[in-house]
Amino acid sequence: MEKLRNKMQEVIEQLFGVKVEPIITPAPEATGADYASNVAMQLAKLVHKNPMVIAEMIKGEFASELRVEIANPGFLNFSIPNHELLAEVGNYAHSFTEAVAWHDYANQTIVAEFSDPNPFKVLHVGHLYTSIVGDSISRLLEFGKAKVVRANFGGDVGLHVAKTLYALLKRSGRTLAQLTIEDIAQCYVEGTRAYEEDEAAKATITKLNKEIYRINAEDLHDSKLAQLYWRGRELSYQYFEEFYAQIGVKFDKFYPESSVADRGLLEVRAHTGTTYEESDGAVVYKGEKVGLHTRVFINREGVPTYEAKDIGLIFTKWDDWHFDESIVVTGNEQSDYMKVVLASVSEYAPQLVDRTTHLTHGLVKLPGNVKMSSRKGNFLKAVEVLEMVEENLQDNANGTINGVSGAKMADVNDMAHSTNAQVPDDEEKSSNEKIATRKEIALAAIKYAFLKYKMGGDIVFDPKESVSTTGNSGVYLLYSSVRARKILQKQNRMVERTFESSPESSIYEKNLCKKVVQYKDIIREAAVDKAPYKICTYLYELSQEFSRFYEHIKVSGNTREDELMDIVRAYYNVMEHGLAMLGIAVPEAM
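Below the sequence we write its predicted structure tokens.
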């Protein structure tokens, strides 16, 4: 497809003197063609010609190379000779990195900020989701040759810390050494309840909030409050690091709110009287002037709010990296908030706002659409999601899913692909093969289940569905990839048996080839749109094409075995790479 696109660009520039990037897609099945383009409609306004006339002119330049047909109102339908398609597939099989490489983001620095958990709180399913999405977006951009800085911003100071410490101070009988992250999470819930229901508690927490800033700024350690603060922060960061290691997500830079608060105060105070204004002892931004709402940036106690700290973060990231783009991933509930923050900054540093992309996502819910809240303490913890999926995998092994015995689960997967047994049985597996653990498969299932949805709306996460071996799941894609790997390992082991592909089976071969060579366009589009779900959709469709190919075409021992093995190898290379872009590693065996 890339060769066709390059040729079309040359033809268009030669005929019309303009440069465009033609859109080429798989042709509708009814056309009998391989690829279609609406480039004639793209050009109509540029060159002031009828699309049908443009299409005829382009067709004339391809007449000696390809079969080209025109359909109203100017679609070009191309049929690619089999040998050209197989040659491109061969590149995917033997020179994969070069075949799919692109460099749109070369020499660009992109800061990707995601996850953003607050110390003194437990990680919930939303943190798991944004960690997985942010990591996948980062991987896609890195493949486009960007220098990606993975950043994590967390509230080590602020009202939530004061609420937690308020409840911790009221507890007795537990030493600092005995304090756990679970204690901290429970105290946050208790402190929040007290803040909302008890005016005296609210006043105390407000006072604590100001004192915590002083503890951090002056590095104080003597008081009981200071000791609780530092121990709680230490436990929180240990907990975060352990969890990120567990899910295979890394960060290059952690920005505690305390490290950017002063910079935020500086910027807000420097622009008070122009962008910001004083109101009842606080400093606010009147967002109504740009169709938004008013927010407080410095409260009456002189303490910077989340808004001021986010401004401090924007400028600190710029000082540190001089980024070409800053991506910030948050929940949808932060959308209006961020609009106000960015609107205020645009009045005195518009270049930073122009380089900022705010991506938002919905809630992750279990079946039943129950809304959960960390403030109320009825939220779903991140670790609980992993545990649930592992339990469902165990149920599969024990034969409790759909009444299928664990011993037959591999057979179920075989039947899902085909009745064509071309791969070694379990007893043939090499003792050196690394078999995927339940934890690894569970994590792959979760990542795919989250990433297959377009970011923005709520997600209903079904643990049982996520480990399905026959549906649109990460487990299914892993099985399909491992199956291709086994076929490749078996090359030339059955040369005494020969098969010829029937004429009817050639369509399955060609369809798989056409799907494989779409990968470069798909990964590029997914990176530019920051949309990992496009990789998921493509990989699932690709695996379905492979399933049909596998069912209808004998590979091992075929007189065209080497050629067919190249197709399988190209398929495996794409699956392995595409899953890696989702943060999923293909095991040697399952």
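The CA atoms of residues 210 and 301 lie 7 Å apart.
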